[in-house]
Amino acid sequence: MNACQCLPDVSALKDGELTAQEELRLRRHLDGCAICASEWRRLEKLSALLHDVPVDHVAGRRIRRTIRRDQAWFRRPLPLPTGIAAGLLMALGLSLIANLWMLAPPGPSFPSAAASTQVIQMEDVDGVAEFNLEGLKGFRVPDRPAVSIIQYQEPTPQR
Amino acid sequence: MIQTLRFEAIYESCYEQVYRFSLSYTGNPALAEEVTQEAFARLLQQKLREIRKPVAWLIRVARNLAADALRDRPVEGTLEVKHSADTPEARLVQQGLRRDIVRAVAGLSRHQRDCITLREYGGLSYAEIGQTLDLSLNEVRVHLYRARRNLQKSLKDWL
Lengths: 159, 159
Known about the structure:
The structure holds two protein chains of two kinds.
Chain A: H1 7-14, H2 20-32, H3 34-50, H4 57-75, H5 80-102, H6 113-116, E1 123-125, E2 128-133, E3 136-140, E4 148-152
Antiparallel strand pairs in A: 1-2, 2-3, 3-4
Helix pairs in contact in A: 1-3, 2-3
Chain B: H1 2-26, H2 29-44, H3 54-70, H4 88-106, H5 110-120, H6 126-133, H7 137-154
């Protein structure tokens, strides 16, 4: 079997992938090495052979036609009545969404300010004043005016 | 408009390469046409100005499409496309040669087939092939060398 350690480099030389220095060195080598010179010729032939794979130009024209048609379909302008109808539909949809949003019922709320002015009974538990009024539980730390609410439950309706 | 003109120019200059690549990769003219059309259709969706080397881009896309298509079915190697030879004998020779080329390419390992088709038909550099297949430069070099050695053996009657 013909063998020379430079054979892989011949393949790379064929592809123009060697540095200038490597190329110069290999071209000198090719002048003196029959194995590599023969490999170079075979690679030239092989490349030409591979490029003998036919090209179907009819398919080419067909592909071009299809792409042009698709392109034209996507880029076509909307006819005026369709455009106006689409605009009106969009405006109608937006106004409907706005109306629904404004008419939406309000979410759950905490007791009103009036309720907070109620006088509530505080119980002294280990030095901290606690209260429990209609589901509203909380405490007040001595020497601080604010009341902290720690739990709120919806009062159960009385039968 | 400029995009369309640019696309037309790219199509004109790259169609043969992309089709030849697809055909040799799949061995099936119908599939090659499908892959080529899809690659160009995808190119059309890109900003062409930003693609520096359209042929490399197209070949990479075509390779991925062809690999996906071949995942379920093997390379066929029929290659019955339009003939350019004049006489019946010449047609037979050409047909035999093409069939052998496709069989030889199909007989390579996946990496060797990828590397040789991307290089020979796509004209991709080693760096671009490495980037496409996630291989190092040295691996690309070795796969190409081995692919050529194997193709030389398979096609020795034609060389």
